[in-house]
Automatic annotation (TrEMBL):
<dbReference type="InterPro" id="IPR003609">
    <property type="entry name" value="Pan_app"/>
</dbReference>
<feature type="disulfide bond">
    <location>
        <begin position="23"/>
        <end position="35"/>
    </location>
</feature>
<keyword id="KW-0732">Signal</keyword>
<keyword id="KW-0147">Chitin-binding</keyword>
<feature type="disulfide bond">
    <location>
        <begin position="28"/>
        <end position="42"/>
    </location>
</feature>
<keyword id="KW-0326">Glycosidase</keyword>
<dbReference type="InterPro" id="IPR018371">
    <property type="entry name" value="Chitin-binding_1_CS"/>
</dbReference>
<dbReference type="InterPro" id="IPR001002">
    <property type="entry name" value="Chitin-bd_1"/>
</dbReference>
<dbReference type="InterPro" id="IPR017853">
    <property type="entry name" value="GH"/>
</dbReference>
<dbReference type="InterPro" id="IPR050386">
    <property type="entry name" value="Glycosyl_hydrolase_5"/>
</dbReference>
<protein>
    <recommendedName>
        <fullName>glucan 1,3-beta-glucosidase</fullName>
        <ecNumber>3.2.1.58</ecNumber>
    </recommendedName>
</protein>
<dbReference type="GO" id="GO:0009251">
    <property type="term" value="P:glucan catabolic process"/>
</dbReference>
<dbReference type="GO" id="GO:0005576">
    <property type="term" value="C:extracellular region"/>
</dbReference>
<dbReference type="Pfam" id="PF00187">
    <property type="entry name" value="Chitin_bind_1"/>
</dbReference>
<dbReference type="GO" id="GO:0008061">
    <property type="term" value="F:chitin binding"/>
</dbReference>
<keyword id="KW-0325">Glycoprotein</keyword>
<feature type="region of interest" description="Disordered">
    <location>
        <begin position="61"/>
        <end position="81"/>
    </location>
</feature>
């Protein structure tokens, strides 16, 4: 009998039994009284239904150290403190036990979400609606400090695979200002090179100011700002991912630089960008694979700028042109595809964030997301795809985004990521023309523009959606990145556009175009989409109904939650209470309304005087977001310790045990 016929028979049988047992139309009732669709759940007879079964995915039965999964059994013995904990499925419960050095066995409520971790290995006993198991062993006893790779290679590889597969949430940091520079963080890059931040905010204009010095100046920055040692240290702190902000143009180093590249779209300017950054993105994937750190690419700078902010590298100061010209959105999809062609096969590749902090037309934004998704799935069938709503209002719990794109429907950085087990999320931080173009001055610093992070080619101008070529070029750049990195072990995914301030319709169209390109190279890596930077209304229909499963695979939604801008008149105690109460509600609300996994991929301790209190309050809430989080940022910069995750670890504001990631 043909396989298709067998599958059809199973489905029809399941549906028939389900109707008799009170289960859903695509489920059947097991002999133990719960509903499911797998081979183990269609037992004989109709028993009392005790609810949907969560025991059909995520397990690690093939790994001898994780131990076997024993269905319809329970473990007695002594529970660890504060049991039970919540788990999404049996594999999640098993992983929680393995990643806790005090846990020796576990039991899971197959009809619910309760997971019990135990400090002994009692013999299993028969029990309906229970699944249990025992841990057979751990690399280095499960308590290595991460100081070296030695015998931890398999452990780091498993850490990498766990975060890429979604068995554990993201616990990571942003590599901000490595490729998309922000003056408030690395102001010395302007100061030491005679470039005014007022006149030349953002990466595009800085490199324009540098002139024929741009390759040497930027090359020195790329080679020293982040090194393999950073990946090693991140790994030792049990971080399992990084979000890597990139521009639409970096991927074209493969053609001698974007100025020499044969682009499918007409994009201006292209002759101002430094050459050589791609080699260090390659290294990130190598280091990510080595040190167990997954990489999420992030389209932080799109053609024309998706928000006009300086951190989107706008070609004209404060101008957002990304959704004003179809070529901008088309180029963004081309760039997404190029990234996937390069990195989708890398072990560290986890996924991509399609557009950071867009301030664009929602319809165009959604169209971009869908186009980008289709591209991504050509190369990666199930890597993470993260989409951002408008940066204001981030209404991720509304149908606009909850019903959108839901399931099921450079060498250095990647080398380091692979080596040290740090997955890499690429992030398109600077798009052609800049996706946000903002350049307002900071209230914290006397001389530094706060928002130069989209590398605008013209001061404070956001032009990304003003010209179609900018958007088209961004897609081309994404594709170039994927061509280069999708096969890297450290590649985890890509964020399609950072903090866009563009036309939402054009932004969505870019996301769709980029998705299509990405999936040519990476079938399942993460794709992250961003809402507009204001209002981040990720709970509104505009985003809740966009790019959802099953039509779209592994698309995540990005949120940027800071407690400094808009909180200037609030006391520290007020902010801490806001985090404990309002942020908790927002996390729960998002998870209830938006079917896409959520990731808080930018947050910091900025704005609160007590760094430890700020860190602990946010960790307590953000650890509950299903997709996880990445802190802004890693390195110590002019921004101070409140903006450095490395400093937070070193000062004892947070510990590696709070990451919920296995020590290697």
């Amino acid at each position: 009998m043909r396989r298709e016929s067998i599958l059809l028979l199973v489905v029809l049988l399941a549906a028939a039994l389900a109707q008799n047992c009170g289960c859903g139309g695509n489920e059947c009732c097991s002999q133990w009284g719960y509903c499911g669709t797998g081979n183990d759940y269609c037992g004989a007879g109709c028993k009392q239904n005790c609810g949907g079964n969560n025991n059909n995915n995520g397990g690690n039965n093939g790994n001898t150290q994780w131990g076997s999964i024993d269905v319809n059994t329970d473990r007695g013995g002594q529970d660890l403190p504060n049991m039970p904990v919540k788990a999404s499925n049996v594999g999640d419960c098993q992983a929680k036990c393995y990643n806790n050095k005090d846990c020796q066995s576990w039991a899971f409520d197959s009809c619910g979400t309760n997971c019990w971790l135990k400090n002994g290995k009692p013999n299993p006993g028969g029990a309906n609606c229970r699944t249990s198991g025992a841990i057979n062993g751990r690399d280095n006893g499960g308590n290595n400090n991460g100081g070296g790779n030695n015998n931890g290679g398999s452990c780091l590889s498993r850490r990498l695979e766990d975060v890429k597969a979604g068995r554990v949430p993201v616990r990571g940091t942003n590599l901000g200002s490595w490729f998309i520079l922000e003056g408030w963080m690395v102001g010395w890059m302007w100061q030491d090179n005679g470039c005014s931040q007022d006149q030349y905010p953002g990466t595009t204009l800085l490199e324009q100011c540098l002139g024929n010095r741009r390759d040497s100046v930027m090359g020195k920055h790329w080679s020293t700002f982040i090194t393999e040692d950073d990946f090693r240290i991140m790994s030792s702190y049990n971080l399992n991912a990084v979000r890597l902000p990139v521009g639409w143009w970096h991927i074209y180093d493969t053609q001698g630089g974007v100025a020499k590249a044969k682009l499918n779209q007409h994009i201006e300017p292209t002759n101002v960008f430094a050459f050589g950054g791609l080699a260090y993105i390659d290294k990130a994937f190598e280091w990510g694979e080595k040190w167990g750190v997954a990489i999420l690419l992030d389209i932080h700078g799109a053609p024309g700028s998706q928000n006009g902010d300086d951190h989107s590298a706008p070609p004209a100061n404060h101008q957002q042109l990304w959704d004003k010209y179809d070529a901008n959105m088309a180029q963004t999809v081309d760039s997404v595809e190029a990234y996937l062609q390069r990195y989708a096969s890398k072990k560290a590749y986890a996924g991509i964030c399609l557009l950071n902090e867009p301030k664009v037309d929602t319809w165009k934004l959604k169209q971009y997301y869908m186009n980008a998704y289709n591209v991504i799935r050509k190369y990666s069938k199930d890597s993470i795809v993260i989409i951002n709503p408008l940066i204001t209002n981030q209404n991720t719990d509304q149908p606009e985004w909850t019903n959108f794109m839901n399931a099921p429907q450079y060498t250095n950085a990647f080398e380091w990521g692979e080596k040290w087990g740090v997955a890499i999320l690429l992030d398109i931080h600077g798009a052609p023309g800049s996706q946000n173009g903002d350049g307002q001055f900071s209230h914290m610093f006397n001389c530094s523009p706060l928002s130069d992070h989209s590398a605008p080619p013209a001061n404070h101008q956001q032009l990304w959606d003003k010209y179609d070529a900018n958007m088209a070029q961004t897609v081309d750049s994404v594709e170039a990145y994927l061509q280069r990195y999708a096969n890297k072990k450290a590649y985890a995914g890509i964020c399609l556009l950072n903090e866009p301030k563009v036309d939402t319709g054009k932004l969505k169209q870019y996301y769709l175009n980029a998705y299509a390109r990405i999936r040519k190279y990476s079938k399942d890596s993460i794709i992250i989409i961003n809402p507009l930077i204001t209002n981040q209304n990720t709970d509104q229909p505009e985003w809740t109904e966009f790019m959802n499963a099953p039509q779209y695979t592994n698309v995540w939604m990005s949120m940027h939650w800071y407690h400094i801008w808009g909180f200037e008149d609030k006391s520290d105690d007020w902010k801490l209470n806001y985090i404990r109460n309002d942020r908790k509600w927002q996390v729960d609300n998002y998870k209830n309304k938006n079917p896409k996994k959520g990731i808080i991929d930018e947050w910091s301790n900025g704005g609160i005087g007590d760094g430890r209190a700020a860190m602990q309050a946010q960790i307590a809430q953000f650890n509950n977001m299903d997709g996880g989080w990445t802190f802004w940022s890693w390195s110590k910069t002019w921004g101070g310790d409140s903006w450095s995750l490395r400093a937070a670890f070193e000062k004892g504001w947070v510990s590696k045990d709070q990451m919920g990631v296995q020590s290697c």
